[in-house]
Design goal:
mainly alpha; 2 strands; 67% helix; globular; ligase; transmembrane; WaaL-like; O-antigen ligase family protein; transmembrane helix
Length: 458
């Protein structure tokens, strides 16, 4: 906790200096509070107010079971004092996806199979804290200020992560792996099997996931002519950071999103399933991925090292996840509760003798959704993916909200690919970023403000 408090004050000092510099140069600083909160997401700035007792010591699901007072909620209370907003709790048409999440939370709380309702509450607190803050920011800032806030935050985080990645593993200074995360030195070496950069995160996979998301945003900015030189420089830095994570999934996802965004930026009005999309999109991606896996200097990362062990661990998690699903197929066992369900099930405890499986979330985000929310939640997840991609594609074709539309498509692709290999997409350090892009993408894709304001491809 002391380390987080110190980190908070350091970040506050940096942003205060940033504000003063902008003030002296007579530049707009209205986005800096928003940027500050976004910057704090990976640092997980929150204060525990209630710690329920559970059998699962390390976690009861992909989120912790602890109830936190979160930084965006504190910022929201401050904003509520400073601004009047009578429509704060009104339901908007372009927030249907959020209604689905709240519906699943309500079902989970009433679910008789849910043995860890405080875990569901912890998830709900996270969602509500961030969405409340985003709503207030939406009413306070215009689209350009929102983009500037995200850009400033991701710029700071990407440069910081790159510097830390150079210090370890390139220079071998292991001290930097423990600055922001306790036990980071163990995760950075994958328990002594394979070194990789972790930056400010707890594992190479989390850093790789964030870096790929940031790459999608900066490439979208570059394609739309927004701060082109700076965007391409940061894109290169994030690409180098991804390389230093030695994360197989991050390598694959990075290649796929760059090719996809490049194709869609020029062909959004064309059907996705066509010969043109195959030859200009699918085929180039397949060729590059084949080279990456079998012919490139990174081939050993895919074909040797600890690849077999990782594949087996994911197969074991698949078996466990499907076993959970069969016990409550319609509505699952409750959001953020699957590990506690396993540890409290005598039948499953007899079958599972691997501590890794019972103490680590299922390494498959899609399977977590299926196990915890059942057919109902998984169906909504699939519908969300398809409708979001379609809406983003329409936005790009109409030259409206293009940066956020491209970023959202990148985010969805990342969640699809990463979702098959890891639970990082629904972790505390990443899921709020999903809420960030999805919230503002849907807000501005609904043409709720004048078109000339929403258009960002200048």
């Amino acid at each position: 906790m002391l380390l987080k408090i110190l980190t908070f004050f350091v970040l506050t000092a940096i942003y205060f200096i940033w504000y003063v510099v902008n003030l002296i140069q007579k530049k707009d600083s209205s986005h800096l509070l928003f940027s500050f909160i976004v910057t704090c997401i990976p640092f997980q700035m929150s204060f525990p107010v209630y710690v329920p007792a559970y059998l699962s010591v390390d976690g009861i699901g992909s989120f912790t079971g602890k109830i936190f007072l979160m930084l965006p909620l504190i910022a929201s209370l401050a904003l509520l004092v400073m601004q009047k907003n009578r429509n704060l709790l009104s339901r908007y048409r372009n927030e249907r996806w959020l209604t689905w999440i709240l519906l699943l939370i309500a079902i989970s709380l009433a679910n008789p199979f849910n043995v860890a309702r405080w875990g569901t509450v912890a998830f709900a607190v996270t969602v509500i804290s961030y969405i409340l803050f985003f709503r207030l920011i939406y009413n306070k800032l215009n689209p350009l200020q929102i983009l500037n806030g995200i850009f400033a935050s991701f710029l700071f985080l990407c440069v910081l992560n790159f510097c830390l990645a150079v210090l370890y593993p390139v220079l071998g200074i292991t001290f930097v792996t423990t600055i922001f995360q306790a036990g980071g030195d163990i995760w950075a070496t994958r328990n002594g099997t394979r070194a990789g950069a972790i930056g400010i995160f707890v594992t190479p996979a989390n850093l790789g996931l964030f870096s790929v998301i940031a790459s999608g945003f900066f490439f979208a900015s570059y394609l739309n002519g927004i701060k082109k030189r700076l965007s391409i420089i940061v894109l290169i830095l994030t690409g180098m950071t991804i390389i230093l994570t030695y994360s197989r999934t991050s390598y694959i996802t990075f290649v796929v999103i760059l090719i996809t965004l490049l194709y869609l930026s020029k062909n959004a009005g064309k059907p996705l399933l066509s010969l043109k999309s195959f030859f200009l999109g699918v085929l180039p991606a397949a060729v590059v991925l084949y080279w990456l896996v079998f012919l490139s200097p990174f081939s050993a990362t895919f074909l040797k090292t600890d690849a077999d062990d990782m594949y087996q661990a994911r197969l074991d998690h698949w078996t466990m996840g499907m076993d959970i699903f069969r016990r409550s197929p319609l509505i699952g066992v409750g959001i953020n509760s699957h590990l506690e369900f396993v540890n409290r099930s005598p039948e499953m405890s007899k079958v599972i003798h691997n501590d890794f499986l019972t103490s680590n979330p299922i390494h498959n985000t899609h399977l977590i959704i299926l196990a915890e929310t059942g057919i109902l939640g998984f169906s909504l997840w699939v519908i969300f993916i398809l409708t979001t991609i379609n809406r983003a594609k329409v936005n790009i074709a109409q030259n409206v909200n293009t940066i956020l539309a491209l970023s959202e498509i990148a985010l969805i692709i990342i969640y699809i690919i990463y979702g098959f290999t890891d639970w990082a997409p629904v972790s505390h350090s990443t899921f709020p970023i999903f809420l960030l892009f999805t919230y503002f993408f849907y807000k501005y894709s609904g043409s709720t403000r004048p078109a000339h304001v929403v258009v960002q491809s200048t």
